[in-house]
Amino acid sequence: INKTIERYQKKTKDIGINSKIVEDHSQHAKEETSNMMTKLEFLEVAKRKLLGDGLEPCTIDELQQLENQLERSLSRIRARKNQLFREQIEKLKEKEKILIEENTKLREQCGMQPRQASEEQEVYMDVETQLSIGPPERRVA
Questions:
Q1: In a domain, 126, yes or no
Q2: Buried b vs exposed e over 12-28: b needs ≥16 C-beta within 10 Å?
Q3: So what's the pLDDT on residue 92?
Q4: Directed axis angle between helix 2-50 and helix 60-110, to 10°?
Q5: Structural domain of 42
Q6: Number of independent structural domains in the chain
Q7: What torsion do the CA atoms of 106, 107, 108, 109 make, to the nearest 10 degrees?
């Protein structure tokens, strides 16, 4: 019976220690949740400000900082867009070279003379327009 009582006391002591550990973890989790909620609210307010909502309580300095932040973001966006355009232009130039080479091979296979680069440009340059400076001329019908 003494051994049973000792085992019971030991188990209750272990359960008491475990419950203390669980309670500590629970308290830490509550504090962490509270901190996360505060951060989330701050991020929501910042998001609304970036979207232009809820600017009434902002000071001039806060508005100036917001404007600077938006300008920096816009410049990064424009830089990325320009980079993508440059990459696309390079790909298109490579594709143009491949198509010109393919066109040259096909002309040779058909027995035609290869086109000169100047001939291809002349197609675009020989376009006549009827634009004129000054009042329109009268046409005789």
A1: no
A2: eeeeeeeeeeeeeeeee
A3: 96
A4: 80
A5: 1-110
A6: 1
A7: 50
